[in-house]
Amino acid sequence: MAILDVLEPQLVRLRARYAKTPLPRFFAWWGGELLSFLPAGWRAALAEGRESLLLHVADGQLVARRETARGVTDFGQVALDQDVDVQRGDFQRLRARIDEPQLRQFFCVPPARVLRRTLNLPAAAEDNLRQVLGFEMDRQTPFKADQVYFDYVVRGRDAAGRQIVVDLVVMPRNAFDEELAPVTQLGIPLDGVDCWLNSADGQRLGANLLPVERRARRSHQRLWINLGLAAVSVALAFGVMGRTVANREVALEKMTAEVQAAQEEAKQVAALRKTLEDTIDSANFLTQKKRTVVPAIALLKDLTERLPDSTYIERLNVTEDGRVELQGLSDRSENLIAELQKSKVLGDPAFQGVVQPDPRVKKDRFNLVAQLKPREAAPARPAADKAAAEKAADDKAPAAAAPAAEPKEGSANAPAARKE
After folding, report:
1. Which of 52, 63, 86, 92 could form a disulfide bond with 104, CB atoms 3.0-4.6 angstroms apart?
2. Half-sphere exposure of 11 (CA within 13 A, CB side)
3. HEC states along the chain?
4. 114 and 72, same structural domain?
5. Do 280 and 364 have their domain in common?
């Protein structure tokens, strides 16, 4: 219990700071919405832990009311004009009707027996509000702090959060002890002393004038159970998170290995594809050259047909880029360009340099250049014609393989008779 007494001021500060945030309103709304989905029996079961027993003195009787989440109902009375032992026994039987070991018990005094003041204080005072109210007691009330029991209820905060509205409840100590005398002589442990707002409806203020040292000592069994469950939940949560991280690491390692294997396989496939392409290009190089480059025999044939008989070629050179260089003699050199322009093999014929006459042979010496035209590829045969040709070839193959029929005598194709 000493630990709880030490922690009480810190808990008060935490509750005050928590109350300044919008979280309490959100959780209250959220909890109400969640509870609305539950059956009525379940809601009643969850509300049983919040019930309290409210006591007050009226007409010479100790009146007990039962406060639950559904409201306040009359529960029983104990006559105070009986012997103390009889009163104690009656109260014990009354209390035994409620099967709740940790039932809270509050004593409520009439509103006329307390002094209530509504104060507007700076929000910064909320962390140490009890001390601030103790210092302000002689200024706000006709009493000093050591002459009264007091408590407060924070009723609201302004939108800017700079001020708080506090209900201060004060009761002189002698009047307090006088009101609690019937309960004190019966030895009833109290969790607090409150004030009625409306005794007919059972509404109370929500303050607690009872000093901390006089309040009932509870075992706080539920608190420790809740703390234990919270610790287990946190441990399980960390365990689940750790296991999840470990599983993700294993999955990541496995996926990384699969990706690396796929990358290696892709590299091998790419290398094989490159090798295959190079091999195909090398295999098709000569074929491609043969298809695109004009053969030398075709070039010589064309030159023979185009050049006049009186023209002689002394030098013929064909470069790799298809450039044709002609050097020779002709007595009709002015007609060479016109003749070569008609060629289907050569294109762009032109003289290189100046045509010079050679007096020794009485002809003009010329240097002429031209460009080989690309060879026209044979038109591709349609696929249907190709298939028909392959089928015809297959049909002719057995006939060719069969032995030739013996020719008839006297036939024109019959071989001549051998001479004896």
Report:
1. 52
2. 6
3. CHHHHHHHHHHHHHHHHHHHCCHHHHHHHHHHHHHHCCCHHHHHHHHHHHCEEEEEEECCEEEEEEEECCEEEEEEEEECCCCHHHHHHHHHHHHHCCCCCCCEEEEEECHHHCEEEEEEEEHHHHHHHHHHHHHCHHHHCCCCHHHEEEEEEEEEECCCCCEEEEEEEEEEHHHHHHHCHHHHHHCCCCCEEEEEEECCCCEECCCCCCCHHHCCCCCCHHHHHHHHHHHHHHHHHHHHHHHHHHHHHHHHHHHHHHHHHHHHHHHHHHHHHHHHHHHHHHHHHHHHHHHHCCCHHHHHHHHHHHCCCCCEEEEEEECCCCEEEEEEEECCHHHHHHHHCCCCCEEEEEECCCCEEECCCCEEEEEEEEEECCCCCCCCCCHHHHHHHHHHHHHHHHHHHCCCCCCCCCCCCCCCCCCC
4. yes
5. no
Q: At 131, which CATH number? A: 3.30.420
Whether residues 327 and 264 share a domain: the answer is no
Average pLDDT of adjacent 10-residue blocks, the chain of 420 residues: 58 66 78 80 63 88 86 88 90 87 88 90 83 87 90 81 86 92 89 88 88 79 79 93 93 94 94 90 76 79 84 87 86 82 85 84 87 65 49 48 40 35
CATH code where residue 301 lies: 3.30.1360
Asked if residue 393 belongs to a domain, the reply is no
pLDDT of residue 248: 92
CB 204 within 8 A of CB 196: yes
Residue 328 covered by a domain? yes
282 within some domain: yes
Domain that holds residue 147: 38-219
Say whether both 284 and 262 belong to one domain: yes
- Rounded CA-CA distance 308/330 in Å is 8
- What dihedral do alpha carbons 339, 344, 348, 351 form, nearest 10°? -40
Domain boundary among 219, 234, 250: 219
